[in-house]
Amino acid sequence: MELTNNKFVLDFVKKYADLMQPDQIVWIDGSKKQLNELTKEALSTGEVYKCNSKLLPGCLYHRTAVNDVARVEGRTFICTSTKEMAGPTNNWMAPAEAYAKLDAIASGCMKGRTMYVIPYSMCKIGSPFAKYGIELTDSIYVVLNMAIMTRVDKKVLDKIVEGDFVRGIHSKVQLDAENRYICQFPEDNTIYSLNSGYGGNVLLGKKCFALRIASYQAWKEGWMAEHMLILGVQKPNGEIKYITAAFPSACGKTNLAMLIPPECYTAKGYKVFTVGDDIAWLRKGRGGQLYAVNPENGFFGVAPGTNAKSNPNALASTQKGTIFTNVVYNPKDKTVWWEGLDKNPPKNVLDWKGNKWSGGMVDEEGKIIKGAHPNSRFTAPAKNCPCLSSEFENKKGVPISAIIFGGRRAKAAPLVYEARDWKHGVFIGSIMASETTAAATGAVGVVRHDPMAMIPFCGYNMADYFQHWLDMGKKCKNRPKIFNVNWFRTDENGNFMWPGFGDNMRVLDWILERCEDAVDAVETPIGYMPKPEDINLEGLNMTTDDLKKILDCDKKVWLAEAADIENFYATKFGDTLPKELYAELKKLKKNLRKRS
Ligand code: GTP
Ligand code: SPV
Ligand code: MN
Question: Which domain holds residue 322?
Answer without folding.
Answer: 299-384
